[in-house]
Automatic annotation (TrEMBL):
The keyword Mitochondrion does not apply. Pathway: Cell wall biogenesis; peptidoglycan biosynthesis. One of its GO terms (molecular function) is peptidoglycan glycosyltransferase activity. This is Probable peptidoglycan glycosyltransferase FtsW. The keyword rRNA-binding does not apply.
């Protein structure tokens, strides 16, 4: 076991005694539970789609989990200034790639969200999500510390550019999450309340417009409001899984929903957990996600740096909202949306982006004994 003395002044020594080890441990536990659940849920999926290697998805998940951990730890070593610079670089590259998907992206289920390179598929919007939260926080904080700098206007312009790319793909789920985080940061920044309300109104108009102009959005909302309005196969199987699991579950590996749900290793992995491990485990998982978010807020609210507060708040809200959307969709509490359960679901770009986002959270919530830069 690696240990560091309090007098150790090496990079990792200082990191170990300043990082939030409770939050780091909670994230590590989520990663471990995700690996266990994917091991249980993915073999039937591999068999169903004709992959000879039963543990193909498990191996791929672990292969992506290792660089995600490296990214998380590496980014968590940065100062707030370093976080800003890295986030800006990632944001600019990711936005360019989002628009590139419209030209060279591969169309899957009517959407162009992925760029395929040999051996890997990249979803650029996953990286836009955490990077934009930090860039927006930076701009909002500059508006406060430098009254002559039009940080809010620049943030609005970048928001518009980002949203246009996501809507054109189209990716309404990602658009909603990025918008919800940005609006929250806008509000926390203490900017003009009338402008906040006006932007909120535009958001509502956008959702209504999406309902009437995008057939897949119309279908999902209609099926949520009226179960008989269309095919609710995945949701119905998911609800059956929770009912079968009961309080304690059927036992690890004993569930059946993974043999029927196409996305049991990804979007509906929470249903596999509900069937095999039961209600108590699922509630524990909810508590674990809540702990990561609330622990982060508890740490950052003690910081006097405005940028750190806004950036960490945006990243934590994003993390919690993504978890809530995934679990809510599995329980039919909201329309279904293809969004992974953080560190639990199978995913490549999602896992790397989550490692990047959580690395920034750990960096921003580290103890500092001087002014944050």
């Amino acid at each position: 076991m690696i240990t560091f003395d309090r007098t150790d002044q090496s990079i990792f020594g200082r990191w170990w005694w300043t990082v939030d080890r409770w939050q780091l441990g909670a994230v590590a536990l989520l990663m471990f539970l995700g690996t266990v659940l994917i091991t249980a849920a993915s073999p039937p999926v591999a068999e169903r789609i004709g992959i000879q290697d039963t543990f193909y998805f498990v191996e791929r998940h672990v292969m992506m989990l290792i660089p995600a951990i490296i990214i998380m730890v590496g980014v968590s070593l940065l100062s707030p200034r370093g976080v800003r610079r890295v986030a800006l670089g990632v944001f600019l590259i990711s936005v360019v790639l989002v628009y590139a998907t419209l030209v060279v992206g591969v169309e899957i289920k009517g959407a162009r969200r992925w760029i395929h390179i040999p051996g890997l598929s990249i979803q650029p919007s996953e990286f836009v999500k955490p990077a934009f939260a930090v860039v927006a926080a930076w701009l909002f904080s500059l508006s406060r510390t430098n009254p002559g700098f039009p940080g809010a206007l620049v943030s609005m312009a970048l928001y518009g550019i980002t949203m246009a790319g996501l809507i054109l793909q189209p990716d309404l789920g990602m658009t909603f999450v990025v918008s919800a985080v940005w609006f929250t940061q806008f509000f926390l920044a203490g900017l003009n309340l009338v402008l906040v309300m006006g932007l909120g109104g535009l958001g509502v108009v956008g959702l209504v417009g999406a309902y009437y102009t995008l057939p897949h959005v119309t279908s999902r909302i209609n099926r949520f409001l009226d179960p008989h309005a269309g095919d609710n196969y995945q949701v119905n199987r998911s609800l059956e899984a929770f009912a079968n699991g009961g309080l304690m579950g059927t036992g690890p590996g004993q569930g059946t929903v993974k043999f029927y749900l196409p996305d049991s290793h990804a979007d509906f992995i929470f249903a596999v957990a509900g069937e095999e491990l039961g209600l108590i485990f699922c509630l524990g998982l909810v508590v674990l996600f809540a702990f990561v978010v609330l622990r982060g807020f508890a740490r950052v609210f003690n910081d006097n740096n405005y940028f750190v507060l806004l950036a960490a708040a945006g990243l934590l809200i994003q993390f919690g909202l993504q978890a809530a959307i995934n679990m809510g969709s599995s329980l039919h509490l909201m329309p279904t949306k293809g969004m992974t359960l953080p560190f639990i679901s199978y995913g490549g770009s999602s896992l790397l982006a989550l490692g990047f986002g959580m690395g920034m959270v750990l960096a921003l919530t580290r103890k500092r004994f001087g002014p944050a830069e």
